[in-house]
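CORE FACILITY INTAKE
Project code: CF-77B
Contact: R.S. (postdoc)
Sample description: multi-component assembly, two entities in total
Requested service: structural model of the whole complex
Turnaround: standard
Below are the sequence entries exactly as provided by the requester. Do not edit them.
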Amino acid sequence: MKLITANAPHIRSFDNVRTIMIDVLIALIPAVIGASIFFGWYALFLSILGMAVGELIDYIIMRWIRGKKDFVPDGSGAVTGVLLALNVSARLPVGIFLIGLIFALGVGKHVFGGLGQNIFNPALVGRVFLMISFPTYMTTWIIPGAGFFKSPWDVQTAATPLMILKEGGQMNVTYWDLFIGKVGGSLGETSVLLLLIGFVYLLLRKRIKVVIPISYIGTVFVMTAIFYLVNPKFGDPLFHILSGGLMLGALFMATDMVTSPMTRRGQLIFGLGCGVLTVVIRLFGAYPEGVSLSILFMNSLVPIIDAVTKPRIFGEVKR
Amino acid sequence: MKLFTFRGGVHPPERKELSRDKEIIRAPLPNKVFVSMSNHAGAPAKPVVEVGQEVKTGQVIGEPTAFISAYIHSPVTGKVVEIRKMLHPIVGKPIDTVVIERTDEDDWELLPHGDFEKFSKEELIDIVKKAGIVGLGGAMFPTHVKLSPPPDKKIDTLIINGAECEPYLTIDHRLMLERAEDIAYGISIIKRILSVEKAIVGIENNKIDAIENMKKVLRGIAEVYALKTKYPQGSEKHLIYAVTGRKVPSGGLPMDVGVVVQNVGTVIAVKEAVMDGKPLIERGLTVTGEGVNEPKNLIVRIGSPVSWILDLCGGVKEETNRIILGGPMMGIAIRDVNTPILKGTSGIVALLPEKPLVPKPCIRCSRCVEACPMNLQPYLLYLLTLKKRYDDAVKEGLMDCIECGSCSFICPSKIEHVRYIKLAKNVYRALRGGKK
């Protein structure tokens, strides 16, 4: 018998970074399947490519650029890859997608020091980078449901419901279409139903900062309700919470552990801020959609939010 | 059933089934004991015996050297063969240790004893002090100090800690099943000492049989509250909060909120001292863990070597790589199996190897913040310690940490927060001591 030095506690929970990342990937499966059904094989291809290449880029950077010889892949690169895929148009060429992914992981994550150190959500960094660099590719949407084997370049283009709203056009989608995801938009953002299934999975597995999506979506609902009462041209609150990237953003991007606040109170403020910014951009900004920019902006405030929402220590005496 | 509890905490696997149903057995007398002069919190005792001297069971061999210090008695009848410095598992420094070889069966030297009602409060406290009783839950704080609060602290509630929230350990559970009458006497004695009417026993609801037994036996003596099974429910501050709703102020003591807390084992020790005249020379403990061949609940003499106790339990499996004094959440891993047990050793847990855990960077999952029963931010204390910003760590509540290990237990990145927090506390104390 050989005894080793060990520090208390001597038993540890089973969970580790990898099991968490794998659970996030599992939670994204419904959305990926949905994307394949609505936008065809290319959507499935981009998602799987994102997962594989994301993890590979992470490994290459850690192993050879940052020289961590003992690095073991943890799945965080794969999560970024899939999330980026779900955030782009079904017609985005592979090369451009990969440039975005390299930027997301390289600049969004590793220049800050890698896993746990980044200020901004890497997938959103990648998305916004692509939006600025390749705006046409990133905003060309196709109509859903053309068939799995159809090339996206053969499918008719369509405007997203939020674009129609912005331009004051005639809306021809139902709430049901929005809920199941049969509308134009990014690969994984359209189906509220499938995103919610993944969210419930994470909730059951206790893998998610649950306050953020509730406060984010709640804020958007309440604010848009007020504007709708003032002037119906702004769109009704149900339409707003069901359309665009709100669900994907609120459930899977704003809840990114690394880039969100640590306390429940902080998470409430964070979600609130995301919600207010999203509504302002949607209703008054130059873009039809503002989820990505809202979350990135709030990401930058996380250190301040953490500092002002410190929990009161048990038994702390008021001074 | 109403369950009492607190915010935060974790649910480690209990693993109590290994020893829960094993009746307490009195271990045979050890042939050699190693009695540390630091068998309590506070100043080590001073040895008052010489090498070669014959000692009786219960004879004083160490005397207190300060207010917070305690008497130490010989656990066996025999001869002092050596007094030497031995590495102390908790203090981490060499401490005077009296080595006694047993020569005979017990020849007791007893304290004055009898019906507790014939003693005054002062006499009772003196017996507790002379018996060398310390907190048997693990902290080993001298009990007579706890039982003599300064006159400006009005005590109205006695709380008996039967939570036993540490995984694996079952000795308190067994004591509450098998020794409930002794606990009842002990509670009555302590109530008399403190002049309190109200006594509450808190027991986690994973010990339903103990709750029922204690309710039956303690009728009219103490109330029994069922506590939610959650670690660290047995933490003094959190037990007080759970059953009374009072929060011990930061840096304060239970007496600041009118409460005294005693562990069930300590209560039995008080009864045995006052009514049977026995000083604290033995204690109940659980020998358990996947590495032990025959898990048991034993009553063992203080100073018995761990290796000898493990042999009583069929020995350990060859692949065992950690032996813990206390529970697995807060206990101390010993390097030397011949380390003797202390008055505060509530268990010996032998654990088998697990995959080595490689700490990863913090992914800010916030589980440590959710789990911390003190509402601290363990991730922050860890980061500040890494950056050697000890003063800032203190501002963030470093000294309030009770080192329960909930944060390290739950952390998916396998960060050892508690290890760093202990380090930071030591450095801070040393630096502050230097400035004075």
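Facility notes:
- Chain B has a mean pLDDT of 95.
- Chain B touches chain A through 63 residues (CB under 8 Å).
Invoice: internal transfer
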